[in-house]
């Protein structure tokens, strides 16, 4: 029977208790009981990940709670200690004298992941990992604590979205001004936080024998089948094929709106009639979503009902809540959790369907035999989320105001294409930063300005000082908290749009391939999962060009 979320309460681990449990795994290996050792090792990791996920979630739900922060600090201090035990046991299993016995219990791909994992840790970097987690929490709390005044009310950063998409140009400009005033006021702290993070990460890389943090970051992301050179070629494909298309779209929007100049505060208004809005508030949207998922093939409908009835959703924006959206899970429960911040704009639908894709994948793969397989690496995981955004298109009219379904689909396609140049800009920025870790904050801002001119040549901040000076990147939390993650969205979008193209002529086949991909979880690395779903790798020449050609034809641009 499904446990209600409110009843979840996992035992709080301690160093001594964990040492005892991990020691039991070693004892079993000493005795030659490989099957029992592998099973216990997996159980310990599931228990710890369930507790850790709940701690992180509760902190995100209320960053002002002293209790949640204290528990988060305990987890930050404990996690490197757990990693040390895990790496030691992974190494021992990889080097076990009877590899046949190990292979009978652990999949080849899991072993491949472990070979990567053991190169990312050494006890000497334990303190640095704990400090990295602390700095990440400081960044999250700083942004979550924003109190912004606009339109006679006080909002947080997520609450600015309705103003940023207003049909009133002056209101949009005001929202942009309020946003960047906050970042300008906090720029010294944000620069200092990031400077500490870069030096810390570079130091960890040097300790582990790498020339820079870049190869370590790729290994921490468990990328076993491609490297920086492949990503660089993909960035160039975006520059060649997508940037001109987005530029054409924005020129046409200027002509339609009668603007002589496109400013940064104009870009969020994608639809000249005003961006389509959700059909209603939180409760209505959940009821409509239930109908939407029941209209789709497979078991999406029953799964979503379980999430609702079990309390595995937190979608309402409120003071002190961390921004953004994510999906987490509790391996011992077999149920994912969706976190988001509804704000009354089209982003509510985008984020919700996106995170629902993550949740569905995790639920479909919940019975796979090892904790390493429950999630794919994040590049593949983002295919599951982004593809569902597109596969819900035939029923998306349920989620928007009457008569706005087609406008929503057009807006979603344009915003997806427009994301790609920004996504690769973020990635390129990180490669530059970690290749030259001694850069000053001023130099980093200049690097961002240079790359922004390359990938987003239309971007005009209208003289707003902080973003004009190259500070836009400070609002992108992934740069601080999850380095080198962001390219995963761009790679996955190239694959998700292939699902969309297939669904236009073969909706049942596209959905069946999607369900099968979700059920595989992390059983294979990124490129093999892509191939198994009948998709072309983003790294294959011509793949992105073909996707863009189809999109351009539909948009008649």
Which descriptors would you attach to this protein?
single chain, 557 residues, mainly alpha, Neurolysin, domain 3, 2 domains, 3-stranded mixed beta sheet, two-stranded antiparallel sheet, 63% helix, globular
What is this entry, summarized?
With 557 residues, this protein is mainly alpha-helical.
General description of the model:
Residues 163-266, 306-541 form the Peptidase M3A/M3B catalytic domain. GO terms for molecular function: metal ion binding; metalloendopeptidase activity. This protein is mainly α. The chain folds into two domains: 5-132; 221-314 and 339-557, Neurolysin, domain 3, CATH 1.10.1370. The chain is 63% helix and 4% strand. It has a three-stranded mixed β-sheet, sandwiched between helices. Strands 1-2 form a two-stranded antiparallel ribbon. The model has no long low-confidence stretch (mean pLDDT 96).
